[in-house]
Amino acid sequence: MAEAKQLNTCPQDHYPELQLFVGGEWISKGSRKSEEVLNPATGEVLGELPHATKEDMDRALAAAEEGFRVWKEKLPEERSVVLRKASDLIRKRAEQITTVATLESGKPILQSRIELQMSTRVLEWYAEEGRRAYGRVLAQRQPGSRMYVVKEPVGPVAAFAPWNFPQGNPARKMGASLGAGCSCVFKPAEETPATALLMAKCMQDAGLPDGVLNVVFGIPHIISTYLLSSPIIRKMSFTGSVPVGKSLMKLAADNMIRTTMELGGHAPVLVFEDADVEAVLKQSVAAKFRNGGQVCVSPTRFLVHESIFDKFVEGFTTLTMEIKVGNPLDENNSMGPLIHERRRKAISAIIDDAVQKGATLNTGGAPIEGAGSFYQPTVLSNVPHSARIMHEEPFGPVAIINSFNDFYDVIREANRLPYGLAAFAFTDSAKRVNLLGEQLEAGMIGINSFAISVPESPFGGIKESGHGSEEGIEGLEACLVTKFISEA
């Protein structure tokens, strides 16, 4: 297992001053409360993040209300031009944005660069799809009459994003709302604020009118409660945990605010006896430990046919032990630190519980000593159902590998949990492929592939993993209302 390499203090020219963005104005800390933003690879302080005051929140809401009035009157083509310009600026500023994203999140720099390209494609998708918010004309009931359906922007959007995709999540939240003609009050994660601010600056420099996008920070439940209690907000988009999502839905219900919820997952991976084991292993290990497993659709429960189980466990363990963990700015490393020490403690606790319950620890299972919140990539096999990790989303660098011998048994196991975000399967049987697509309970299913997200496809789950979708035509539709007009 490679030891984590230490980083030097990051150059100050890489990390911008942390501010609020309200009504087109950049607001510095001043006398506001603040919190430190830490580099998870070193524990060093990157900057001081100001918390929005009540007055800041009122200004943001008022700005969003006025910004919506201005933005919805723009022609779809005009809105498209702004989003395309913002995408171009993000690409031009890629080195700074990806470096800052890696410093804040600990995501390996190569993965941050891939994420940036994905983010620009999302913005470009919404730039185009916003021009296609079509309605329809209904057949006449009598001569001279007309009946038609139109799509209109829902209104100001409150959007809340987590830290694990500091570029991708802002692109989804901003892209959907702005592409539909809505304004947005956006609260990114306090762990990764500068990345979102750099992307907001690209929006401003691309010509976005003042007040259409506002970015605020603070204690999450205080910010969300204040925003969702306002009659100005007409739509909420949230990505995060199931408990927080349920709490926000209750707040949104008081004002009948429309919601899109992308919540937690515990993705099963079904590997059948006819699969190409070597090919599946290579894909699986890369997918599992991407961003240290801190991905909502991360493959977690590998359910492997008993005839290839031992070979799969051995191969998975060998490849896992070859993962280079360390300085996320070093292109040779494929895994960085966890986002903070709390995550490292949570991972340790859930792995220790599994081992105590009888699981086999094949590799890993311990923090990496030294500065930063690094953790060993871990493989557990033969994990009993009594272990917490079989029920709780680990959200970290740990894979579970168990065996099965019957198709319908493994389907029941895959669908056993209340989560339904993503599921994966590998087989060469065409008939089985069809059955898997029909019977796996998830909003996104990858068969012989872990690639389940492109800008034109809906991204979202079912059951307790949420409702609604981001990306695709469904992501734009979530920010539109339907109006029927009848003329006699």
What is the architecture of the largest domain at the second tier of CATH?
3-Layer(aba) Sandwich
- Order of strands across the biggest sheet? 14-15-16-13-12-17-18
Mean pLDDT: 95
**Count of all domains:** 2
- Helix amount: 25-40%
Global shape: globular
Largest sheet: 7 strands, mixed
* Computed structural class: alpha/beta
Report Rg.
Answer: 23 Å
CATH top level assignment of the largest domain: Alpha Beta
- Please state the oligomeric state of the protein chains shown: single chain
CATH fold call of the largest domain = Aldehyde Dehydrogenase, Chain A, domain 1
State the low-pLDDT regions, or none: 1-12
CA-to-CA gap between the ends? Answer: 75 Å
Number of helices: 14
Could you describe the 3D structure shown?
- The structure is a single chain.
- This protein has 488 residues and is α/β, with parallel strands linked by helices.
- It folds into 2 domains: 12-263 and 464-487, Aldehyde Dehydrogenase, Chain A, domain 1 (3-Layer(aba) Sandwich); 267-455, Aldehyde Dehydrogenase, Chain A, domain 2 (3-Layer(aba) Sandwich).
- The protein is 37% helix and 19% strand.
- The protein has 14 helices and 20 strands.
- The chain has helices spanning 54-72, 76-92, 94-105, 109-129, 168-180, 193-205, 220-228, 242-254, 277-288, 309-321, 341-356, 407-414, 430-439, 472-477, and strands spanning 20-22, 25-27, 34-38, 45-50, 136-138, 146-153, 157-160, 184-187, 213-215, 235-239, 258-262, 267-271, 299-305, 360-363, 378-381, 398-404, 422-426, 444-447, 466-467, 480-487.
- It has a 7-stranded mixed beta sheet, with helices on both faces.
- Helix 5 (168-180) links the parallel strand 7 and strand 8 (184-187).
- Helix 3 crosses helix 4.
- The longest helix is centred in the first third of the chain and has 21 residues, at 109-129.
- The radius of gyration is 23 Å and the shape is globular.
- It starts with 19 loop residues before the first strand and ends with a strand.
